[in-house]
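Appendix B, Record 12. Input sequence as logged:
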Amino acid sequence: MIQIISFLAFTATVAIIAYLATKDTDESSKDGYFLGGRSLTAVVIAGSLLLTNLSTEQIIGLNGAAFKEGLLVMTWETLAAIAIVITALFLLPRYLKGGITTVPQFLEKRYDSHTKRITSILFLAGYVIIFLPIVLYSGALAINGMFGIPELLGVSKETALWMTVWGIGIIGSIYAIFGGLKAVAVSDLINAIGLLIGGLLIPYFGLKLIGNGNMAEGISTLMTTHPERFNSIGSAESSIPFSTFFTGMMLVQVFYWGTNQAIIQRALGAKNLVEGQKGLMLAAFIKILGPIIVVLPGIIAFHLFGNSVANADEAYPMLVNKVLPGYLVGFFAAVLFGAILSSFNSGLNSSVTLFGVDLYRPYFKPDATDEEMVKAGKKFGIILAIFAMLIAPMIAKFPQGLFGILQEANGAYSIPILTIIVVGYLTKRVPAIAAKIGLLSGVILYSISQFIIKPNLVSKALAAAKANGITEQDALDKISSQAYPHFLHVMFALFIMNVIIMLLIGKFSPREVPFEQEHTKEVDITPWSLAKPVGIVISVIVIGIYFYFS
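Logged structural output:
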């Protein structure tokens, strides 16, 4: 009973504080609803960024990957810090200079309205088909595992999954659709603090259990017993080979932190560039500590449970139930619930923003007022949320790990969008037709590579394995590491190819008038004086971590 009481108390407290903090914000205006009135400060930006990112698809998915492979999967966390620095120094000043609400708005100014429309549709498709359903599914998996929902309600796991997915989806939709960005950001900040505390408690109690009450002894036992799990450099057979550091890994990170609307929208709502850069740098520092929460528990779970866990994504909920004292389970579940809501409502809020700003007013009702645009966005958000809640339970049928599914599928739209943004900022004469070709070729070629050619090879490998008495897992390992390039290598190759194509088009058929970015003066874009030194320190720390664990 105390678990349920603490869960409800913390969840209600967050909702009340979010309401009080946002009740005076004019959310009938475009900037008021979509950007929190351009009033977000560094701490709020950092907290919202981290909690939008650090949800159950991270906590469960990455810990599940660490359960299987160890420390090498920390790459998704630590290299993110460098990508955030790049965003703070290179991309954010340009975004705020243009006074944009969405990333596709820049593409309209740089190329044309059709490029903006294609990009907005790609973002929305990625959110409704990939991001939002995975957040809901992973969140439901965590809640069901921690509270034993199937046993509590006397229903099957599948039925409990559907019930929890819809419960999370409905509550998250209320935050995102009816509260606007500021309500999302404020609730994120509170939950971020709780998640950092709760997230650190799991490895703390886990190490104490391994060390018979002594945390230092637990660390020593873990590193002595499983030294291979503390190697940060992945082999060619691993899910993240070291070679990907120099190809697609950083591209994925820069897209996620610098151009993904669900993430960058927090920084776009900054009251000025100084607050935006401070918020990003603070988030980068905290990301360096991320592996303690999203990787180390997976290694602890492997030590405690070994190979007895059939599904690696279930390892983290099992660890929480084993090591966390009963009086803290309710609090941690509430924090985790807040993290789930954060990622879901952030993605949904960004979808509403993309539809309202980039599609509804330009193409459905050009004379729409801000209030009408916000209302249309809210209606669209309800439809999007329902689609996501219908898709989410179906993810249970995928045998791959959650995090791997998310990262590979995201490549279909992330790299094409990143390509045209980078070329758009670094050149002045590449025309709009080049951006359209870059987008379409990137999406089509990546989809053919990963969702047609690769599955066909996997199918053939499994058939050959069955005929020759080879196990299915050995066959899958072989096809992923030898017979077909890693998806991050594929991303990099397509990125380079599309950049070259766009530059060639720009050379032989350039824009008549070179692009010059307008300064709208909506916010002060004076940079933070310490931005570059702090960025260098963060980058050096990340490199040092890899040297230490290599």
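The CA atoms of residues 59 and 294 lie 5 Å apart.
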